[in-house]
Write a structure and sequence with these properties.
By secondary structure, this protein is of the alpha+beta class. Helix content is 19%, strand content 33%. The protein is built from two helices and nine strands. The chain has helices at 62-75, 98-115, and strands spanning 2-5, 10-14, 19-25, 29-35, 40-45, 84-89, 118-124, 129-135, 140-146. 35% of the residues are buried.
Length: 170
Amino acid sequence: MQRINIVQGEYHVSAAPDVAITTLLGSCVAACITDPVARVGGMNHFLLPGKDLSSPLTARHGVHLMELLINGLLKLGASRQRLEAKLFGGARIMNVSGAFGAANARFAQEFLRREGIAITGGSLGGETGRRIQFWPATGRVRQMLVRAVEEPQRPQSVALPKHAGELELF
């Protein structure tokens, strides 16, 4: 089994039966799209929905990566009418990424609806990260929830007595 890991701003398509595409998500979203008849599929991993294609982060934007993923699948013989999608990610991690995660999830759902691509499953939102494994030739997906690592608590500062720090040598 060949594993191909993708990170923010990347996508990969394949028809090979022995390939699994993997990624790790927090507030980002990954779309796993497959054509079950042609037995081809692919995954992307985007950081922001992105409507401004002149931005230096365009490569990490959902609008750009969704188009690249779909076009890559069509080049491998997929039919747009048979495409099925599963969406993952969009979590609120450590109380700071809630708006980003929710915006990413909304974007992905709206994009696929506009394109007429059926959403057949997935897992969006929540407060935990996800490790995703996707077998593009079959459309099978495995999700493993990843707990956020909490920062260690710093010791409380202790008030020192007035004469603390004084040193008397004999």
